[in-house]
Structures are given as structure tokens and as C-alpha cells.
């Protein structure tokens, strides 16, 4: 039996990892996955750098799955509000199907 | 011309990689992508460890795309049934659009 | 407030990275994320190798988010047309929800 769930993906500078994970865990999410990457672009540039040349830099990509879409939106809003006004980064939501909702 | 397809994402401990890939290939999937990462949480803890402190550990994230949603669900059920009762890990499905269905 | 956007995911051999990023930037996308991985399968095999044993090899996974679904399809078509007739690789689209459409 498959059930609809919501995946939160956060792409951020590495220095934000612990702060983002704290929010994710405090919100009651039961797990997360982190992958290393690199990124470039306006949404990865701090305000002070906006006029300068955008250079590639190291990022992390965090995935979190929760059963409830509203809980996912709350977590996304919280992370964006807490970090992505001063720091570069993005958060987005995807609808997925999972097998065992009790794991999320 | 874009066509609807289904993406299967499997997040598992590295020791399961060969077993998971065997199921994916036996099911007739034409390709897969593997990315390394780390993970933490209830769905990554073996039953014997559930009472202990959850520590972060190395995982793999495997993506497989198939044209048929029912084939995707069969593969997901097979992987979960074979591995994710004893080992930690998750599998989820996403609807995507692809350009050349004959490649999947 | 969440808004619908489209994520383009490109999985390709590493040698295509600069060419793909050029198309993404020329199309007006404001950012991208790159993760390293490995891949195997028919859609990663060059035509000349199709009869041979398929071996795993290094790939990159690029994600790009744009607000407009038709812009996403144009970028995907352009990348597939330019690279994925001669080289192996795939491109697919996913519908997502984002918080600040002006960042994409």
C-alpha cells in the first residue's frame, strides 16, 4: 500500500547544516539524508555579494520526508525564515508516494 | 514530446547496494544513478539499535526511472520487502516527465 | 505562500558539465546545483558501445529550478537535442512547490 507524503529538499551552504538539522529534528521529522554538492547562482549569493561575480561553492542538499503536507510547509517556512534572508539557499517541496507511513 | 514516467528513489546503507541493484536490473529497468550521502533517523536504524543513540552514517541514494507506474510500485515493494524489514532504508516514488520513453 | 515551479534534473557524463551549464545559464535560469555520482545502464551508453558490456562510470546530476513549466521543457529539449543523441544521459522534469518565486 502506497501513501502520499511530502519531501522537503533544502539546498544550502554547508555552514548552515547544524542549524537546519536542528529545525528538522525539533519539528518531529524522523530522518533525513544529506548529499554534498556544489552550486552557483543568484539564490546562492549573499546580499552583499549580489553585484559581484557569482562563483561556484560547496553546498549540502538535505532531504526530509514527512507524511503531512502542512507540516512540510511549516518546516520549509521556518528554515527559509530563519536562514535564507541572510544566507543563500533554497527549499522546495515535492509530492511523493511512500510505502510505510509509520516510518516518516 | 514529454511523457509521464515514475522515478524510484532508494536510500539505503551502502552494504545493500549490490542487492538492490540486482533487483532493479532483474525487473528490467534500463539504468540507475547512485549518489553517496549520509543519513540519520529512525528509518535508518536497525531494530537492535532502536533504543540507542542514533548516529549519522554513510548511505547511498539510488534513482531508477521506469515508464510504468505499476512496475515502479512492484520494484519498490520488492526492495522494501527484501531489505527494509531487517535493514534501515526507505524507498519512495515520484511522478516525473521524460523526453524519450524508449530510453527507460 | 508556496508557488508551483518546475525542477529540471539532468544526469550526464562529467565531460558535458560545462556545455550543459552554458545552456542553463543562457536560458536565464538563476541557479543550479551539481552532485557527483555514478551510473549504469542503456541511457548511459554511447551508441558505439551498445553491444558491449555496460560498465559503471562517473556522472554528474544537475538540478535547475525555473518558475515556468514551458521554459523548463524548452531547456530540457535543448539539452537533450544538443547532447543526448551522441552522448549518454537523461533529463527529466518534476513539479515542485517553492517559497519565493522571485529567486528562480
Please characterize this protein's 3D structure.
3 copies of one chain form a homotrimer. By secondary structure, the first copy, chain A, is of the alpha+beta class. The first copy, chain A, has one domain (13-59, 66-92): Alpha-Beta Plaits (2-Layer Sandwich), CATH 3.30.70. Chain A contains 2 helices and 4 strands. A 4-stranded antiparallel beta sheet of chain A has the order 2-3-1-4, covered by helices on one side. The longest helix of chain A is centred in the C-terminal third of the chain and has 15 residues, at 69-83. Chain A starts with a strand and ends in a 6-residue tail after the last strand. Chain A binds chain B through residues 2, 5, 7, 21, 29-36, 63, 65, 94-100, 103-104, and chain B through 9, 11, 35-44, 59, 61, 73, 76-77, 80, 84, 90-95.
Main CATH class of chain A: Alpha Beta
The biggest beta sheet of chain A, please?
4 strands, antiparallel
Q: Please count the beta strands of chain A (DSSP E, at least 2 residues each).
A: 4
CATH architecture of chain A: 2-Layer Sandwich
Succession of helices and strands of chain A:
EHEEHE
What is the rounded distance between the termini of chain A?
Answer: 15 Å
* Helical stretch tally of chain A: 2
Mean pLDDT of chain A: 86
Largest interface: A-B, 23 and 25 residues
Shape label of chain A: globular
Gyration radius of chain A, rounded: 15 Å
Strand content of chain A: 35-45%
Helical proportion of chain A, percent range: 10-25%
Instruction: Give, in spatial order, the strands making up the sheet with the most strands of chain A.
Output: 2-3-1-4
User: Would you give the CATH topology of chain A?
Assistant: Alpha-Beta Plaits
Amino acid at each position: 500500500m502506497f501513501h502520499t507524503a511530502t519531501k522537503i529538499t533544502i539546498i544550502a551552504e554547508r555552514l548552515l547544516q547544524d542549524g537546519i538539522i536542528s529545525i528538522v529534528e525539533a519539528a518531529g521529522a524522523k530522518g533525513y539524508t544529506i548529499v554534498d554538492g556544489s552550486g552557483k547562482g543568484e539564490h546562492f549569493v549573499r546580499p552583499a555579494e549580489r553585484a559581484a561575480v557569482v562563483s561556484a561553492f560547496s553546498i549540502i542538499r538535505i532531504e526530509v520526508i514527512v507524511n503531512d503536507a502542512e507540516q512540510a510547509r511549516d518546516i520549509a517556512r521556518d528554515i527559509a525564515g530563519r536562514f535564507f534572508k541572510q544566507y543563500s539557499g533554497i527549499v522546495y517541496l515535492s509530492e511523493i508516494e511512500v510505502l510505510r507511513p509509520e516510518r516518516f
